[in-house]
Design brief:
Chain lengths: 325, 325
């Protein structure tokens, strides 16, 4: 690989002069600059970012930690985080924690050792005390963390309210909500709370069912859904707290010969790819994943420059009506 | 953040002694080692990987380039690459090329500047000459690249053959294949070739339809599928070259009141999440994504140590029968 010395040799200039051009230090004539850039191009010289990072004591790398890369929600979130980071000239180091405590601790140590500029932590359930010893901005997405720099969320409460109101407007009179249960309180828990608020306000019968962590980690909810549908035949509207759960509700309905949306209406949450490739397609609450990713990156960059950032930011959601209602 | 000096101060040892413990250089008594490790733990000292990388002239970072992070196939592939890399103590820098030439060139330069240990390039269509100036192992997954170090593929030809044979065994007599078209030859093109071989061998009527790059980049094939199904009502079996296309075939069938699998049987390719969350679920060709990811990482590590690696490795596929046939 071409080095600074090779560029100097090619141009006939001193190494220190070439270095000054690269770092835009001091006065350099346009002619000299041009000859350096030409030589760099000719030799395909790539400045050593590792050396630069060491002298700057930081990198332009962001650690991104998600519990499950292949979960459709996280896949979409990562995609938008990468795009937003790239736009600001940052790169992402991606880590899958699989929701295991020791794994997250290990990842955070690795982020420290690699002097990342900041960390974006998505969802997950790791104990808070594991996050001691982080000296860079820590932005959370859809997760509460006392020592985080800033939290970015969507309006989960309003999303739950929208889902309930939509099902009621569509004529449902007996509702059920299927959502996750966690040791710690998670922002997503507000989806169920908002849903139940509206049911109470409208005097509509409702029941709440909880998925467990094993089901979440496996992405497998069929058994629970079948139990809910066979034991509660009066239910005519379901709010699932993710599109993945909603897609599985559709599958169980097909097996049980329950016609969607005629006999049962279904609303999901997230608005990721899953909701538009099922049959029928899924009415869902759109989470502004792209904007949340952009906001998280922008806050991380600001915080790393010691600018003040909002400690909590909530972005709006909207209802996307499709075939399942 | 605690430094080497802080550890030295805590233990009362010289900085050079602490450094020797960290780098396992020369004789150090067990007692001294223990006191250094205790102090490191107490102070939460994290060695500076950036400094280490500079002195070693390489990092333990792997650049991973995919065309579309959120595509279900790539999301699953990335997940397995991360796991395999982590297992070997490597981290991944993830890049989304969105199949744009300039973007891939930019990413490769960035990998060079950051002194990655190697690059894994997944699918994509970038011109080969863009890859000059790469001085580290370059492993491709499902992609042909003349100057790549090693290529990992699944047995696409056999997968196509399996799909055709399965549809014929299920009683189909009029087949169609829907697959991607590319400027360059891609390993995935063999799926269609294998499919057509079997149709010819068995004397079965078949037609081949091509998706275009815009459809691939958008993940949107409904219009093409509707055209195929309305203009070829005699077709009773479809092989789609990805589960994403197969899922959309199911949606169009539902709209056109074509019953799957009664009137039309559908086989996909990949065996990613999509194939098991649709209604009906999709019979598909299982691509050993996990093993392909592990193989790619293992080859990259070997090649970076100047061990010889196979220039091309093809892993076996299998048929997963579900409800769509």
């Amino acid at each position: 690989m071409a080095t600074l010395k090779d560029v100097a040799k090619e141009t006939g200039l001193a190494v220190s002069t070439v270095s000054r051009v690269l770092n835009s230090r001091g006065y350099i004539s346009e002619e000299t600059k041009k000859s350096v850039y030409d030589a760099m191009k000719k030799l395909n010289y790539q400045p050593n970012e590792v050396a630069r990072s060491l002298s700057k004591q930081t990198t332009n790398t962001i650690g991104v930690i998600v519990p499950h890369i292949k979960h459709p929600y996280f896949a979409e979130l990562i995609s938008h985080i990468e795009a937003a980071a790239n736009h600001r000239n940052y790169k992402i180091l991606l880590f899958n924690s699989r929701d295991r405590d020791e794994k997250e601790k290990e990842i955070l140590d690795m982020c420290n050792r690699n002097r990342v500029a900041g960390i974006i932590l998505c969802s997950g359930t790791v104990e808070m005390n594991k996050f001691e010893g982080i000296h860079v901005p820590l932005i959370t997405i859809e997760r509460n963390l006392e020592m985080g720099t800033a939290a970015v969320e969507c309006d989960n409460l309003k999303g739950g309210r929208m889902a309930a109101r939509h099902l009621i407007e569509k004529g449902c009179t007996n509702l059920a909500v299927i959502s996750g249960v966690r040791g710690n309180y998670m922002p997503a828990d507000d989806r169920e709370i908002g849903f139940m608020e509206v049911c109470k306000e409208c005097g509509i019968t409702y029941q709440a069912f909880k998925t467990n962590e094993v089901q979440y980690n496996m992405g497998e909810y069929h058994e629970l859904i079948e139990e809910v549908l066979t034991q509660n035949k009066e239910v005519d509207g379901i709010f699932a707290s993710s599109d993945l759960i909603a897609a599985q509700v559709l599958q169980v309905c097909s097996r049980l010969k329950i016609s969607v949306p005629k006999d049962l209406k279904v609303v999901g949450f997230d608005d990721v790819l899953v909701s538009s490739i099922t049959t029928p397609t899924i009415t869902t609450i759109h989470q502004p994943i792209k904007e949340m990713a952009q906001m998280a990156i922008s806050m991380l960059v600001d915080a790393s420059k010691d600018k003040m950032v909002a400690s909590k930011t909530t972005l709006p959601v909207s209802l996307v009506e499709r075939e399942s209602t």
